[in-house]
Input
Amino acid sequence: MKNGFGLLLKVTLVLAMPLTVALAGLPSAAAEPSAPSINAVLTTYADIAEAKYADSLSGARKLSDAIDALLKKPGQETLEAARKAWISAREPYQQSEAYRFGNIIVDDWESRVNAWPLDEGLIDYVSTEFYGNTSDNELYVANVIANTSLKIGGVDVDTSNITRELLRDKLQEAGGIESNVATGYHAIEFLLWGQDLNGTEAGAGERPATDFDLQNCTNGNCDRRRQYLRVATDLLIEDLDWMVRQWSPTGAARKALIEAEDEKRALLSLFVGLGSLTYGELAGERMKLGLLIHDPEEEHDCFSDNTHNSHYYNALGIRNVYFGSYRRTDGSLVSGPSASDLVRAADPAVDKRVRAAIDAVIARMTELKARGDTIERYDQMIAQGNEGGNAVIQAAIDALVAQAREFERAMAALKLEAAKFEGSDSLDNPEAVQ
Output
């Protein structure tokens, strides 16, 4: 689901529900300010992007340290520490996804770090009873960790040495198949947790620490599994470092917005990112699809059962972009003139509606996160017959759809050109996925 800055007018979205949203629980409104310049708003937008990717990079480096400790002394304690570091590293990254869909530099790069879903059998051993053994993907169960040579597209590929080049250039999206995911957060997640074989019952992946233990190796190829985990983590750091630089004062992503000849078109990228993540990606592909088919394989962080957190931080990321305010992982605040300021100056009533919609989403996502933390994980919530869990997810979806509608209203208030958000069959044509 990619949508670059130059492709904004090609995206379609049909919303048929009434344009209504409750106005309760609004933050107190100050006197209406004069409108900031669009350039000032875009500068804040870029500053927050740089901060989010820098925090993501810092989290990845801490994850790398935890993985070093795991590989040095494989055991349950070091494995659990690495898993916790992975979950922590996801928090700032998930907040950065509001920069997708409207910024082509982010879209062209994103599949390196967050491609999902993935055919994990490409990487390592899987349970064929749970995973299946047939697919249109020839690399569905290729298991590069167990094999020093693979045939890809009819060509023999030497996989004896697991390198950056092998993972990024040979295996990532091999054969043009997006589910051939060899790099990024979810490849690392699979290596740390293994498959979740519990379906919609309680429990995440249970990979043993001995899968990384050269002295007491389980499931074979522990040396290559260690090598894969190390290389994938190094690549994640490399990719995040590259994206931080794109949003630096001289970076290409920042300059594409700040130096754009058409400021309103540049501003449009902000709203297309917010609306597309809200509607087609989060409400649709990540939430409604799994709820429709009650399939835990459609859970975003499916190995770790961290999905409730990922969805919450996506929603928080949308909020802090609209309000131009981001609390960094070190506690410092990055803030400045915001999209909300522009909308409020153009039409205060519209800004109040957007604020109310955002508040509603955060409230529903907070409820979902709390349920995931204390009662049941997301894959249990989507289970068929779980009326309570299903209802919590559907309430969040409904709030997201309403939020997308209010972003459209804000774009109209600012007299931005007509552009639609990323869609999803699960919302627009649910009969096609049932």
Summary: Residues 5-9+18-112+250-429 form a domain with the A middle domain of Talin 1 fold (CATH 1.20.1420.20). The chain has a mean pLDDT of 91. DSSP finds 15 helices and four strands in the chain.
